[in-house]
């Protein structure tokens, strides 16, 4: 495609100036192909690897059209996690700062009353997680959400995840409050082309609208991970995983590297955070049992390098722009190979190199084989931690730190809130039967 800058793609002059001020001057592949089609009025499905500029691919044309007619609620972006919603809201706010843009962030963990007040002011763009927006639609009244009936754009970011059963009810509630398909543009962006997304590509044309435009950068299913990513595995006995982790994070190669450690459960994230902190490492965590303010602070500390290690559940695996990550450790192996791709996508972004190391116990072999099939690449064995004498040296102090952390968590009643919530939900269900 000959277009080589944002002006020739059709974005407004003011927006091109904003992008230039942010040192964004060369459109990426996904931006080159999608921006003109969205400006022409097409619905769009865009597929590209994490870190390839998908946000600007939809924000650019939406902001351009909005500036031609800056009316009330103009566009909605739905995304699966609070952190990703915050990041997108920041980008919209930064891009539209010279145009007095009003952006509302509607996510869990924040004041419902404050959000309702913001929605009553008819913000131009709403960036939301489906659960919280659905709550407002069901409970906040027409003066708060009535403006949704006039929005021009709906974006599903990380569409592959939003179109799963997890979000089905809330997503249905959100879409039900919007204009019909022929009265709005629908834009789906994803790093993974799932069956649900592919089914939408084959949907019949909508009368009165240009045909659906679908574009995938370099067949993202074949190029699941960047070529600059080194994928390795480390065989680890289950009961001494923490000692291996400590050794890896403090070995000569990674002693100063920024790292994200992915675990499958919130309890594991908290145990590791407390244990590594006791061992003197600068560490933060990110998981669903943390209050929203703590989650935000952790992410900011990690971005600012005040913490060099972030321990996270899959809350952090999607779309978050953390450009400094040099190492991703899959402390627990995910059951879905696509989750591995999203996790690994936190490093080796935009042409940089990075390492993804997976801790493999005897129970993980089939999962690793499924991942290797999906990424079409064999992992190599990691040789950074191999001296058993060193492991023995680390084992005593790591075990002591872990034991103290577990005692501390027990004292603090970690996890009690979730148990109480589960019991409450169970009681509600029982009373309905």
Automatic annotation (TrEMBL):
Annotated EC: 3.6.4.13
InterPro entries: DEAD/DEAH_box_helicase_dom, DEAD_box_RNA_helicase, Helicase_ATP-bd, Helicase_C-like, P-loop_NTPase, RNA_helicase_DEAD_Q_motif
Molecular function per GO: ATP binding; hydrolase activity; RNA binding; RNA helicase activity
Helicase ATP-binding domain sequence ranges: 35-211
Entry GO CC: cytosol; nucleolus
Keywords: ATP-binding, Helicase, Hydrolase, Nucleotide-binding, Nucleus, Ribosome biogenesis, RNA-binding, rRNA processing
Gene Ontology terms: biological process: rRNA processing
Chain location of the short sequence motif Q motif per the record: 4-32
EC supergroup of this enzyme: hydrolase
Annotated PANTHER family: ATP-DEPENDENT RNA HELICASE (PTHR47959:SF24), ATP-DEPENDENT RNA HELICASE RHLE-RELATED (PTHR47959)
Function: ATP-binding RNA helicase involved in 40S ribosomal subunit biogenesis and is required for the normal formation of 18S rRNAs through pre-rRNA processing at A0, A1 and A2 sites. Required for vegetative growth.
Record protein name field: ATP-dependent RNA helicase DBP8
């Amino acid at each position: 495609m000959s277009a080589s800058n944002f002006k020739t793609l059709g974005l407004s002059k003011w927006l091109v100036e904003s992008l230039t001020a942010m040192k964004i001057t060369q459109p990426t592949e996904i931006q080159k192909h999608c921006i003109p089609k969205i400006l022409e009025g097409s619905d769009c499905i865009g597929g590209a690897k994490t870190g390839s500029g998908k946000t600007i691919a939809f924000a650019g044309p939406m902001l351009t059209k909005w500036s031609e007619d800056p009316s009330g609620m103009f566009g909605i972006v739905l995304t699966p996690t609070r952190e990703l919603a915050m990041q997108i809201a920041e980008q919209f706010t930064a891009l539209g700062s010279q145009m007095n843009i009003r952006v509302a962030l509607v996510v869990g963990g924040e004041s419902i009353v404050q959000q309702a007040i913001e929605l009553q002011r008819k913000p131009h763009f709403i960036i939301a997680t489906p659960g919280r927006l659905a709550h407002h639609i069901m409970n906040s009244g027409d003066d708060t959400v009535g403006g949704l009936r006039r929005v021009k754009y709906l974006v599903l970011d990380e569409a592959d995840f939003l179109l799963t059963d997890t979000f089905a009810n809330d997503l249905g509630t959100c879409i039900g409050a919007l204009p019909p398909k022929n009265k709005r543009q629908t834009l789906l962006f994803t790093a993974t082309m799932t069956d649900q997304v592919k089914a939408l590509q084959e949907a019949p044309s909508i009368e009165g609208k240009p045909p659906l435009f679908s574009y995938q950068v370099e067949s993202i299913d074949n190029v699941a991970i960047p070529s600059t990513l080194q994928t390795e595995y480390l065989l680890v006995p289950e009961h001494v995983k923490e000692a291996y982790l400590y050794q890896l994070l403090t070995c000569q190669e990674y002693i100063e590297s920024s790292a994200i450690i992915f675990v499958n459960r919130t309890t594991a994230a908290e145990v590791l955070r407390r244990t590594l902190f006791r061992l003197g490492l600068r560490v933060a965590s990110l998981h669903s049992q943390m209050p929203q303010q703590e989650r935000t602070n952790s992410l900011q500390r990690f971005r600012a390098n005040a913490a060099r290690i972030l321990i996270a559940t899959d809350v952090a695996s999607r779309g978050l722009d953390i450009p400094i990550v040099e190492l991703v450790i899959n402390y627990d192996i995910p059951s879905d190979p696509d989750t591995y791709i999203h996790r690994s996508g936190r490093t080796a972004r935009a042409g940089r190199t990075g390492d993804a190391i997976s801790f493999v116990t005897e129970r993980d072999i089939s999962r690793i084989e499924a991942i290797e099939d999906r990424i079409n690449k064999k992992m190599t064995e990691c040789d950074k931690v191999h001296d058993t004498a060193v492991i023995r040296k680390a084992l005593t102090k790591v075990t002591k730190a872990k034991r103290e952390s577990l005692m501390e968590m027990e004292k603090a009643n970690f996890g009690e809130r979730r148990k109480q919530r589960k019991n409450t939900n169970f009681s509600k269900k029982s009373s309905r039967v």
